[in-house]
Amino acid sequence: MAAGHVKEYITRVASIDGEIYPRWDLTKPLPKLPVPDIHMTLQKYLDIMTPILTPEQLQRTKLIVKDFGKPGGLGEFLQQKLKNVAETKDNWAYSWWLDDMYMRVRLPLPINCNPGIMFPARYLETRHDQLRYAARLISGILDYKTVLDVRGLPIDRCRHKEKGQPLCMEQYYRLFSSYRVPGVKKDSLITNSTKLMPEPEHIIVVCMNQFFVLDVVINFTRMSEDDLFTQLDRITKMANESEEKSAPIGLMTAAPRDRWAVTRMQLMEDSTNRDSLDAIERSLFILCLDKALPISFNHQQSFDQTSRNVRDDVSIMLQMLHGCGSKHNSGNRWFDKTMQFIISEDGACGLNFEHSPSDGIAVVQLIQHLLRYMEEVRQRRLARMRSICELPYPRRLQWKFFQEVLQEIEVAATSFDRLIDDLDFYILKFDHFGREFPKSQNMSPDSFIQLALQLTYYKIHGRFVSTYESASTRRFRLGRVDNIRANSIPALEWVKAMVGQTTTTDEAKLQLLQKAMDWQTKFMTEAILGKGIDCHLLGLRELAAELGIPTPDIFTDEAYKISNHFSLSTSQVPTETTSFLCGYGPVVPDGYGVCYNPQPDKIVVCVSSFKSCPETSSDFFAATIESSFLQMYELCLRVNAQRSQQEIPKIRNFGNVNSMGYTEIKSSPRKTRLIRQKNTDLISSRDGDVKENGK
């Protein structure tokens, strides 16, 4: 009955979507990703590098680019070869992009790669409540998987440029069938896309750092929710009663990839370990039953929650990102698995997902559908499935550890704890206005936020840097993402005017802002239409290597390295509520990770950095984002008032505002406390579209 209900739910959602976009023929295959014009790509490359290079660096780069792109030169030769490759593949960029973005990266997965997602909090007062919700979650996932198995999800549609155009859905179908295998120098993404291997019928439950096989189908019969609860209860008792506490092998999946690859090969020498690894790698997903965390993990600014002995969102997001340390829940993980659901005794729930099979926006949309469906099932109180009479006990996975492996686990624990302690994470819930204000000014909310981030970084650091914002290319076959770069020449001109380095009027500042937004919107549109520069340059570089051609100068030039050092790594991941959040770590040691969620009347921004970098501070960056938003807001209102000869509404007392546009703070950035002024009521208006991008 539940399976029939989920199909009815999906059909209902799909039919609504079809009524909105009736003109698109969903039976036609998606187009292939085009190969951009090489000369346009090279010009864009110079444009985005101009604001972040010294004059000497820029002059050298211009000469190198000119030589690479000259008629009959190496660039045109590689371009033609790339076009030939594109004719033979569904997506010429996919494999090169996957290796460069994920498979060749040797850093630990948690914080550096795997995002964390926080679900709306549950009120789970007892272990019984935790297991009941876990059983309902498993049952809901299995219901939803019946639709995934027949590739029956409603087609996602474009929300920007050619609205309603179908998007590639392949990412969804990899979520419960993929696994990342560590390798020396390069990992592998394994996806069961054929029918040669039998479909897995089990999940892995992790409790107290111990791994258990929970069969969800027995004798061709799927377990009922009550049966799942019974098995989960057995697992928790088995974990608590275990006399021998196994070494926390899950910590190895948080080690640098080369070290974990070598250790995994050592484990595979024993048949017991091979069986355990195989059970984990072939499972549908991982379910982590976590211990409650102390209130000490709350952020230092969360005075209200801490005084009421309530966990804050920062604490919960950290649990989803890394488990909060080897003495808490970090060993209760297996970070190589694509989907890893987390349910804590204290009601914190969420997901840690391995990023290589899918982009964040697809995962978030699937989870939101899943949670809505689970709530419908709960409210309808559908007839329960028949219980299985005799349930075999869940199986605890066994391990045989050599001394070298035990030493590696200890090293991994120390290294991971150090990385966890280094993460600086803050969540800004900006409630003065949301995405409706930029729209009321005929501005793109995403461009508004991106330019606010450029202004923020410049205020703090006095310069522009390479900025990554993911742009979906899913309107093409096997499409993933390219890069929107906000570090443009028009943006720099506007920022210098905003901080007072160039003297000009408010009217001129707003015109500069509009010019920067027009550039940003044009670059974004071209990126989502397959004319981005990052994948194109990557393809030319990788193709040269495959052809045995010495690396072209354009890719050994210092400017190319600078262009790929993303001190600002950003993405928009819109969700239905602010209680559903996504976050991740920085991608470089001296950078910021910024994941933002524009709601109609508020903007939520998750900011991360590393404490070991003396120049970065997440709460100071968040405070400066807040001042940038308000500075841009006031600029718009002042110009509007000047144009209409009306009085400007007084909205805020900034205190001592310096020439950089934010409140002066006496102490150092590391010790700064986020300044809050809660005496402002701003305008919110109707809801609207958000473009389809995400990390």
Give an account of the 3D structure.
This protein has 695 residues and is α+β, with helices and mostly antiparallel strands. It is built from 22 helices and 18 strands. The strands form four sheets. Strands 11-5-4-8-9-10-1-16 form an eight-stranded mixed β-sheet, with helices on both faces. Strands 12-18-17-15-13-14 form a six-stranded mixed β-sheet, with helices on both faces. It has a two-stranded antiparallel ribbon with strand order 2-3.
Short synopsis of the structure:
The chain is α+β, with helices and mostly antiparallel strands and 695 residues long. It has 22 helices and 18 strands.
What would you call the quaternary organization? single chain
What is the percentage of strand-forming residues? 5-15%
The total count of strands amounts to 18
Q: What class do helices, strands and sheet pairing give?
A: alpha+beta
State mean pLDDT (0 to 100 scale). Answer: 88
Strand order of the largest sheet: 11-5-4-8-9-10-1-16
Q: Number of helical segments? A: 22
Which radius of gyration do the C-alpha atoms yield?
Answer: 26 Å
Major sheet: 8 strands, mixed
Helix content: 40-55%
Unreliably modeled segments: 651-694
Taking the alpha carbons of the first and last residues, their distance comes to 36 Å
Shape: globular
Features:
22 helices; disordered C terminus
